[in-house]
Amino acid sequence: MFLKQFSRLLKPSILGAFTEPLKRLPALAAAPASRWNPAFALNNPLRWNSSGAVVPLADKSTTEAVNKQLETGTEGRLFAVVQLCGKQFKITTGDIIVVEGYWPPENGDRLRLDKVLLAGGSDFSLIGRPLLAPGLVDVQATIVEKTLSHTRTHFRKKRRKQYMRINFYRSQQTMIRINSIEITRKLANSAGAPEASGDRFF
């Protein structure tokens, strides 16, 4: 049964319906056979996504447009994704985040969060591989409060063994306020030489 249905799919009339849209794309016809070669992927001005559509990488004009926004202050409200104590947080200016577990900083300490995975504004995003270049994004924060969480219950039971234990505990928490997020320098044009720059622009 399955082989009969599969043999119908292999007819030239049906296969033509699948291959016809591919012939209309000039980029697919012009792409060399070695497009999956890593060296070709670095120098290729086109990027392939999961949907099969061709998406151009950031060119010089895009990088210049972002640099102009940063110079004039029209980038909008910046956001970032930072890694802190093994967890990732999406933050923006004025946010308060809670870090679970023991953490040495005390109340009032000012911090600079270095592990920035992603940063962006209203029109652009900078994506790290896996982290952005050191010093590109400056995230300032302050320890607001160190406290304990609400009372949690840890209950264990083994049936038919007359075993039942119940424990209550509170874990340490640190509340952090994000003071500012700033992009400290201009972006380098990564379209021409992606291996020479730590900035990757999408």
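^ that was protein a. below is b, sequence first then the tokens
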Amino acid sequence: MVNKKWMISTAVLGLIVLILLIITVRQHNENKYDDRYISEKLSNTVSGLSHAILENDKVLNDTLKDTKGKVVLTSLHAQMLCGNTHEIMNQMQELDHSAELLGKRRQDGNLNNVAKFTLDAELYLSRKVMNNGLLYDCTAPKSDLTLNDEQKDFLQRLQTANKEWARIVIKYIPGATNSEAWNSFWDKSRDGFVRRSWWVEMQKDFAASSGQLPLLPN
């Protein structure tokens, strides 16, 4: 009788251990899935933000290479500049939100100031440079744009801010301006991205840049 009770107790204990093992394995797999999902989403945010900044840097450099003469913003460059500025705004906010949710840092408003700057820049671009009727409309103009002094001044101010952001991107992403190095970096960095610390430091640098933002024309 005692032996039978012992066998039942052993079987029950074994069943409990098996259930706990299954739960542990399932939880481990779920955590791995969560890690992969968050890492993928977060790395896409950082790479999208970085790419938009670097592309705007090139567009602004090309457009403002000769500020003494006539400054022409091509139709394609106008659309790219507006679209990338919108992307920077969205991804800055997403990066700030992600860092807060993951407990990496608290929102201090500085990154939101950068996002607001890009929002104002996008509005100016769409309405006063590209002459689009709708708010934040980045539809390409039908022809290239010859800029007046105020518009040229606006692009120079935007360039000042964007150059600082580009400096930050290049600081954390070696060879960022080289497509092969860029692809290689992200191929190696996406896995376990959420556990890396450099993107948090990058975010801090972006937030710190809010104190250097130039005033934009109304």
